[in-house]
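Write out the bound-state structure for zinc ion.
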Amino acid sequence: MFIDTHCHLEMYAFDKDRDEVMKRAADSDITYIINAGSDIEGNVKGLQLSGKNPNIYSAVGIHPHDAKALDESLYKELKKWIKQPKVVAVGEIGLDYYYLHSPKGVQIEAFRKQIALAKDKGLPIIVHSREAKNDTLQVLREEIVDTPGVLHCFSGDKEMAKKAMELGFYISIAGTVTFKNAGELRETTKYIPDEFLLIETDAPYLSPVPVRGKRNEPAFLKHTARAVAKIRGIRISDLARITTLNAKKLFRIGEITEKGEIAYKIRDSLYLNITNKCTNKCGFCIRSRTNYVKGHNLRLEREPSALQIIKAVKNPKAYKEVVFCGIGEPMLRLDVVKKVAGWVKDHGGKVRINTNGQGNLIHKRNILPELKGIVDSFSISLDAEDEKKYEKICKPTIKGAFNGIISFIKEAEKVVPEVKITVVKIPEIDMDKCKAIAKDLGVELKVRKFNVVG
Ligand code: SF4
Ligand SMILES: [Zn+2]
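---
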């Protein structure tokens, strides 16, 4: 399922074949479309379209190109349009200093006035910003209180994306990311955390490669999605899940599952979420910020039994590996891990455990011999170069955690074929010292990006 978070289906470019365009969108798994308004006629036609089509929603707003048209009577119209039931955002609004069809001061005023409308209605805004980074950020900083939105068809740099995300804004990537000269945009696309990422077509404009030059349409979103997934090292199905969830949240459309998932697929592996408890309170842990990993809700209402987990796995052979992970520490439920891992192995699967390495401390004995033959690999978070740093970063509730982890790694190597340690890349951690520890222990060290989970 995909959501095209920005297009202009009402434009005359679609007058001849709008129905076929929408049919192709549906055939390409585009469930919802956000149609953005830009001028008077476009807003009116867009509202007619969303009024007739259950899967089209409207954003209403006056584009910066037309800012000079936003007089009192048009402002009144806007206020009327906003009240229509299918309106989910105010946009596209913003600043365009590339074309300067309206003077800068006029654009800024129209931008501010329309943000005020959005705030009044509690709607998100869809922001167009071209060659106007500083002013855009300044207006957003000054005007936004609790109705953020999205920077659509993002063309800024990493710094702009970072600052916008700090204000709670999503970043929407369009077909421009597939263009040959879009190296910087591809870098930014890689850097945006999952929970801020959206995709769009901006149709009829900006067709992605390999259809560049043709009229764009929602069905072409798949080309952009494929490119963005590749850049981020995930499958297109992962990207669809992540961006659909974000769009549903931002525009408050469709249904969002409230139920925590026990087994969730990312790339070619199946991950198991068997507890939300942990013996640490790491400063970088995503649990404090979100319930979601790669678009999967992992907040469990109750811990699943071994049988429930096995039922959720179904066929272990269908995956590259089955990974005990989730947003908690799996070794807290050792008995369940042993039952499920044994079953996975019996049914031809591969088992990995992602752990904070405190299993022996939790159970006050060496549990590793109990895992022999049922676990193929361990990925153990080290996340510090010494006890003092570990205490500071990971805030363990168990005393002597760091040394306990080191001895867990040594014991793991004796019984499990593959042991890796991981370290999150944050400035507080001395990476060279961590590398030396890994070398000493004879294990591979994997550096994980901050804010990238799953
Ligand atoms: S060990 Fe993992 S799950 Fe536990 S707090 Fe740290 S990052 Fe979160
Ligand atoms: Zn647009």
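---
The two ends are 20 Å apart (CA to CA).
The mean pLDDT is 96.
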